[in-house]
Amino acid sequence: MLRLFPEGAALARQNRSFVRRAVRFLGAHSDVRQFVDIGSGYPTGGHVHEIAEKDPLVNRRPVHVVYIDNDLSVVEFGRSLLAEYGTADRHTYICGDFRDPDLWKQVLATGRIDPDKPVCLLAASMLHFIEDAWTPLEAIKRRLCAGSYLLVSHVTDAEGAASETDPQDRSAVDVYTQSTAHYVGVRSREQIERFFHGWQMIEPGLVPLPEWRPEMSEPVGEPADHSRLVGGLARKVRIGGCH
Predict the structure, then answer these.
(1) Cβ neighbours around 237 below 10 Å, total
(2) CATH 3.40.50.150 matches 8-235
(3) Mean pLDDT taken over the chain
(4) Contact at 8 Å (CB) between 96 and 65?
(5) What share of the chain has pLDDT > 90, as a percent?
(6) Do the beta carbons of residue 56 and residue 50 sit within 8 Å?
(7) Which pLDDT belongs to residue 69?
(8) Residue ranges of the domains in the chain?
(9) Are 82 and 91 in contact (CB under 8 A)?
(10) pLDDT at 136 over 80
C-alpha cells in the first residue's frame, strides 16, 4: 500500500494532528468531558484522554473516554495500557462493530458515559471503510444529547485530493480491498457533508485537514491542497434529551 499510496504515512500524521486540534478546541471552548472514539486502532502517542486531561492548551479536567475497535487484540492491548497507567476507572476499550445496532448499549454498559450529558463522538478516518456508513451513524447521533459533538475525517475525491477515477488512487483502493476483504470508499464532499446532517458545523466547516484550525496545533506537515483527507466538527443544537 505504501508503494501505491506513498503519502499514507503523511495522511496518518495529518489525521492524528486533526484529532489533537479538535480535542484541544473542545477542551478550550466547550464543557464536553465525555468522548467515544470509534475505530480507535492501536494506541498511539496522544490518546484522546491524554490530550483532554494533560495538554497545556486545554482546561485540564478529568474526562471519560470509551475507545471502540473491532479487533480484539487492539482492545486487549489498550486495556492493558490503561490498567498500567492507572486510568481504567475513567477510560476503557470495548470490542464492537460500528454497524451493530446495539453498539450504543455496549458503550453505556461500560458505565463510563453519562447518557444525560453531551458526548463527543469521534469517527476519524474510519467511515470510508463502511459501505453504508450513514445508517449506523444516524442511529448513534439520535441518541446523543443536545450539546454533543461529531468529529469526522474522511478520504475524498475533491479537487486536489483522492479520486476513484485516478488510476493510482483506484489501484490503491483495489489493492487494499483485495488484500483485506474490507470495503473502502472514496466519497465526494457532498456525501461526506451528509454525515453532519442536522448538526451545526464549527468553523471553518468541512475542509482539508491541515486547514482545520491550524492555530490550535504544531505544524501539520503537508500543504492543504495535497491532502486527500477532509474533516470537520459539528455540534448538536436541537433542544431535547437523549434517546
Answers:
(1) 11
(2) yes
(3) 84
(4) no
(5) 61
(6) no
(7) 96
(8) 8-235
(9) yes
(10) yes
